[in-house]
From TrEMBL:
Signal peptide region: 1-21
Keyword Signal appears in the UniProt entry: yes
Keyword list, A-Z: Signal
PROSITE patterns per record: PROKAR_LIPOPROTEIN
Domain of life: Bacteria
This protein's name: Lipoprotein
């Protein structure tokens, strides 16, 4: 029984750690910080917006990106609390954005 509980705990820990990346931070695009400008490419998936901030990123790479590869391919990613249906045309997948 103890082995089963330990296995369950390890599985949950591994799954949780895979979802977050160390260089990820959140910003609300409706109220962006006035102290810094953020520029990157939009990755728009499942009603959540991610901005890829890596300098080497290319638009075609982001347009064809699979969500499972997001954190494997890029070390600096921003998660934006902004929903697709709020009418932001510049938040299409692959677009460059500066906020």
């Amino acid at each position: 029984m103890k082995k089963l509980i330990l296995l369950l705990f390890l599985t949950v820990s591994i799954l949780t750690s895979c979802e977050s990346a160390p260089n990820t931070y959140e910003v609300d695009l409706k109220h962006p910080s006035e102290s810094k400008t953020i520029e990157g490419y939009v990755y728009n998936k499942n009603r959540m917006i991610w901005i890829i901030l890596d300098k080497e990123v290319k638009k075609k790479d982001v347009e064809n990106l699979e969500s499972s590869l997001l954190f494997k391919n890029y070390s600096n990613v921003m998660k934006c609390m902004f929903e697709k249906d709020q009418g932001q045309s510049n938040l299409k997948n692959g677009n460059k954005i500066k906020i």
